[in-house]
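Feature request, filed as a ticket because there's no other form

It would be nice if the structure record came with a short human-readable summary line next to the tokens. Right now we just get the raw output. Example of a typical job, pasted below so the devs can see what we mean:
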Amino acid sequence: MTNLPNKGAAKARVARILDANDKELMAIRKIEADGNTLVIRGKIFGAMPMVARLTPAEARAALRLLDVRTVLFLLTLLFRRN
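Raw output as currently delivered:
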């Protein structure tokens, strides 16, 4: 008897962050809330597990980095083709 992959099994959801050469920097496996903190779980460089936490103060600091043009780009990003 062999261990064949289950055809009905759902593929794991992963969001990838790539570098300028399309190499994977980070694979994000889960984003969840933990109190007032956003917790991001994944792997860096495909091997090293990582847990990142985004506090409300850091989220506000990140939003201040955005200009109007980038905000408009982000609003349309989900509707663009690869």
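Something like this underneath would help us a lot:
The two ends are 41 Å apart (CA to CA).
The mean pLDDT is 90.
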